[in-house]
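2024-03-11 09:14:02 DEBUG pipeline.ingest accepted 1 chain
2024-03-11 09:14:02 DEBUG pipeline.ingest length=126
2024-03-11 09:14:03 DEBUG pipeline.predict start
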Amino acid sequence: MNDPTLFGLCGATLVGLGLYGLLCQPGALRKILAFNLIGSGVFLLFGVIALRGGGVLAAAGRGIDGDPVPQALIITGLVVAFAATSIAVALLLRLAETSGRTTLENEAPPAPSLPGERASRPDGES
């Protein structure tokens, strides 16, 4: 197994773990981290594409070590991912300050009462 194949498999594994975390984890911070895992896997796959493209160009005698377009996309993507993560964490902190909770799920609705029953008060008095 050569290096680009290994890096490609690692990138695909990061994307898979990120998707699992995004779909299965309930906490908002864990979802942010899972989204960052997906981004890291995509950046690694872009790096493999840049490496393979550069290998073809170097074999053709052009003397280029790597394709510069995916490298530029990776650098730009890292900056955007950092900014988006910062904004998401700031919004999560604001959510925790205003509502006192850190999850995005709605609270369970109260159980419906039967038509003949009186509504009970939370302190136990009727």
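2024-03-11 09:14:41 DEBUG pipeline.report The helical segments are 3-24, 28-59, 68-99.
2024-03-11 09:14:41 DEBUG pipeline.predict end
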